[in-house]
Specification:
GMP Synthetase, Chain A, domain 3, Rossmann fold, Helicase, Ruva Protein, domain 3, disordered N terminus, binds adenosine-5'-triphosphate, AAA+_ATPase
């Protein structure tokens, strides 16, 4: 396990996390403990011991955590190969909302001390949600339930705001909760990151358990599925494998999140396929989420794709302005319930937030947290001007996230082709036309030059991109149906 360093935040900051009420360094240690365990599973104990297991927490504040490696060599290796996994796991476990960003640096190891005890020597947390008074009169954070319980309480159907883009998913969730006999099986939920898939899945899990405690529910991320599968293949012989299979199949409802993660792992894919076949055959519900339509999960076998699409495929689309506004209202209400009763965001500031943050509910939440934190810590009111100032930070600017890659993925999803087709030499109309659409949109919606765009489509010449732009412009003028289709894609991209 990774070591813990001096529990004092490097910057001396002792501002508590808004969400957990814990000082940043303490919650960073708690999060790291869970991440560290997952890392060992995901990467294998040997790799973990050799690299990521050497990391220790150097500094942490409400927004960022710095992990330190004992040498530049180890830090480089981790930054090159394992940073994505660490960031993903950190986002999964962090009790701070939105999750803090993680960076890896190298530095001399500090004397490894234990994280501070929960019962004393803590900075004052007066007025922070989740804090409590100790017998000595000192304020200490409440003993929090494990993060998964926190998530479960938060990700309920009551907290899910419904609009045209997610009403089907919401209806499906209620149907699964209320009806133990599968109507559609498997159910596949897809939508780009941050749209609320995990929220719905947790809500279903909690809803089913509440309604019928005897219904056996298992929630597993695809990452854990792979880790447990690999461990059972490597480690514990036939018994281990049977236990693994039983843990997934002796259930009434199996929920698997982020299934695209499995795509390039052929043995895990095969196991997933058999799990689906077995559960569907036994009349048990299986619910799967992915960031893309099953047909566009690259490297997934045709058989797996066809099984994933064989029940109900349900998309969560981008939230429109009205939905974003209502999500914002829900966030404000939740904060007030958590004890921040004086929280006030004037309507023009709300409108501005909802109008500008047309990316995903997660981005909206991130901006909201940032604005509230700033106002709380600086003791200043939230106004249209402070919101405008925060949103002028490039991270929150609309359109900055419109990358060629995102355009390609969205177009692939719209036309049900694979991402590799975007750069392939295939000239069949079914592939060439979407490719031209993606080139056209890249030119129209990003600041990339024609040669640059061409390079991102399998090294094509700028004249090919020019031709695509002309062709699609012409087709939009000639064919209203095609024009409407492109407009819909643009709207998806702009939110
Ligand atoms: N309709 C909604 N109402 C309220 N909150 C929402 C809604 N949609 C998303 N959110 C919130 O946005 C955040 C991101 O949602 P979630 O993690 O479920 O996205 P996701 O689609 O699973 O993303 P990823 O693919 O990255 O895992 C969560 O905090 C969730 O509660």
């Amino acid at each position: 396990m990774g070591r813990v360093s001096d529990p004092v935040n490097g910057s001396g900051e002792t501002v508590p996390d808004l969400y957990t009420g814990e000082p940043p360094i303490q919650s960073a240690h708690n999060t790291w403990k869970a991440v560290d365990e997952d890392l060992a599973r995901a990467l294998g104990r040997n790799v973990h011991r050799a690299w990521t297991g050497q990391l220790f927490i150097q500094t942490a504040d409400a927004h960022q955590v710095t992990l330190s490696a004992p040498s530049a060599f180890v830090a480089n290796k981790i930054n090159k190969h394992y940073i994505d996994t660490i960031a993903r796991l950190w986002a999964k476990h962090d009790q701070v909302d939105p999750p803090r960003t993680v960076s890896i640096v190298s530095g001399p190891r500090q004397a490894a001390r234990r994280a501070p005890r929960l019962d004393g020597e803590r900075p004052s947390l007066v007025g922070v949600p989740g804090s409590r008074q100790t017998g000595s009169g000192r304020t200490a954070p409440s003993l929090l339930p494990p993060v998964s319980d926190v998530a479960r309480k938060r990700f309920t159907l009551d907290n899910f705001v419904v609009g045209p883009s997610n009403e089907l998913a919401f209806a499906v969730a209620r149907q699964v909760i209320n009806n133990p006999v599968p109507q559609y099986n498997p159910i596949m939920l897809h939508g780009v990151n941050g749209m609320g898939k995990t929220h719905i899945l947790h809500a279903i899990e909690a809803g089913v358990k509440d309604r019928d405690p005897d219904r056996r529910v298992r929630f597993v991320s695809a990452e854990d599925f792979v880790a447990q599968f690999v461990a059972s293949v490597r480690g514990s012989g036939r018994e281990g494998m049977s236990a693994f299979k039983a843990s997934l199949r002796d259930v009434d409802l199996l929920i698997i999140d982020d299934v695209h993660f499995i795509a390039d792992k052929s043995a895990s894919q095969e196991e997933l396929l058999h799990t689906i076949i077995s559960l569907v055959g036994a009349g048990r519900q299986i619910l799967i989420a992915s960031d893309r339509h099953p047909d566009t999960i690259e490297k997934a076998s045709d058989r797996l794709k066809s099984y994933l699409s064989s029940g109900l495929v349900c998309k969560i689309g981008p939230a429109d302005y009205d939905l974003r506004l209502r999500i914002l209202d829900r966030l404000i209400a939740r904060r007030r319930e958590q004890g921040h009763e004086t929280l006030a965001i004037p309507q023009p500031a709300r409108d501005h937030l909802a109008a500008r943050m047309n990316v995903t509910p997660r981005d909206l939440e991130g901006a909201f947290n940032q604005i509230v934190a700033q106002s709380q810590f600086l003791g200043t009111p939230i106004t249209l001007e402070t919101v405008q100032e925060t949103l002028s930070d490039s991270r929150y600017m609309t359109g900055q996230r419109l990358t060629v890659d995102r355009i390609q993925r969205t177009v692939c999803e719209a036309f049900s082709i694979s991402l590799t087709d975007m750069s392939s030499k295939r000239r069949a109309r079914a592939v060439a036309r979407p490719r031209q659409v993606a080139m056209y949109l890249s030119k129209k919606l990003t600041k990339r030059s024609l040669p640059d765009i061409g390079r991102r489509f399998g090294g094509r010449d700028h004249t090919t991109v020019m031709h695509a732009v002309k062709r699609i412009t012409q087709l939009r003028g000639d064919d209203v149906t095609f024009d409407a289709q492109i407009r819909a894609i643009e709207e998806t991209l702009k939110g």
